[in-house]
Design a protein that fits this description.
- This protein has 243 residues and is an alpha/beta fold.
- It has two domains: 62 residues, no CATH class; 161 residues, Rossmann fold.
- 53% of the residues lie in helices and 11% in strands.
- It has a five-stranded parallel sheet with strand order 2-3-4-1-5.
- Helix 1 runs antiparallel to helix 2, helix 7 packs across helix 8 and helix 8 crosses helix 9.
- The termini are far apart.
Length: 243
């Protein structure tokens, strides 16, 4: 009865990890020889694990990553030209601490979105607020926000996101207003947050797809300065044509 009351009180205080840990550990032969200090220490560990997992769940839910991928799932045997050393360095997360951008380019089907979401997953594990957008959807959201008067609020929220993932950049030519929105967003994030951009286009073509030269210069400057680039590619097998 005393244990049930204690568990109830722990739940009332929202110490759900400790409550579950106490319920699981009571009567366990493995815990019978523990001192009071050791037993309490394990319950504190249970609570921390519970809170860490709950926070990760919230971060992943808010991130809305397109794929549930992880860096440990990357198959380096696949012929995509991935630089393992670069990914090992990215997995440490220091690039987020340094507010660097990551640019991932390559043709369709080589796993750009998979890699971007894997980095997003890793960022969430490290406690970083992450937001994923297909680039076309971001432009639609900003246009809608301008219509209902929430444009500034949306831009402010995006500017404060620790990691912003923009997937499939450059599928269509940007309008003047879209380019202006992108510049404003990158300007707000420059030096204070990290951005991942994936694109089928090589970076040398980004200037053209953005359009207006002055804005394109500013956007490319914000993106390319102090960035990390990963170029994925298919391995081409050349075969002689049979007559």
């Amino acid at each position: 009865m005393m244990n049930e009351q204690t568990i109830s009180k722990l739940n009332t205080m929202r110490l759900f990890g400790m409550a579950r840990g106490l319920a699981d550990r009571i009567g366990s032969a493995q815990n019978a020889g523990l001192s009071h200090e050791e037993f309490v220490g394990l319950l504190v560990d249970d609570e921390k694990i519970h809170r860490d997992n709950a926070r990760l769940g919230r971060l992943l839910s808010k991130a809305r990553l397109k794929q549930a991928s992880a860096l440990e799932d990357v198959d380096y045997r696949a012929p995509r030209g991935l630089d393992k050393q670069v990914l090992v360095e990215l997995s440490a997360g220091h690039w987020i601490d340094r507010h660097q951008s990551v640019l991932i380019t390559g043709p369709t089907g080589v796993g750009k979105s998979f890699l971007a979401c894997a980095l997003g997953n890793q960022a969430c594990r490290s406690g970083n607020v992450t937001t994923y957008y297909r680039f076309s959807r971001l432009l639609e959201s900003l246009q809608a926000a301008r219509g209902d008067g929430s444009h500034l609020k949306v831009m402010t929220r995006l500017s404060k996101t620790a990691l912003l993932i923009l997937d499939d950049f450059g599928l269509t030519q940007l309008s003047a207003l879209e380019a202006k929105d992108l510049l404003e967003l990158l300007e707000d994030r420059y030096g204070s947050a990290s951005t991942i951009i994936t694109s089928q286009l090589p970076t040398r073509q980004w200037h053209e797809i953005i359009g207006e030269p002055t804005i394109a210069d500013a956007i490319c400057d914000r993106l390319f300065h102090n960035c990390i680039q990963s170029r994925t590619q298919r391995r081409v097998h050349e075969k002689e044509n049979r007559k």
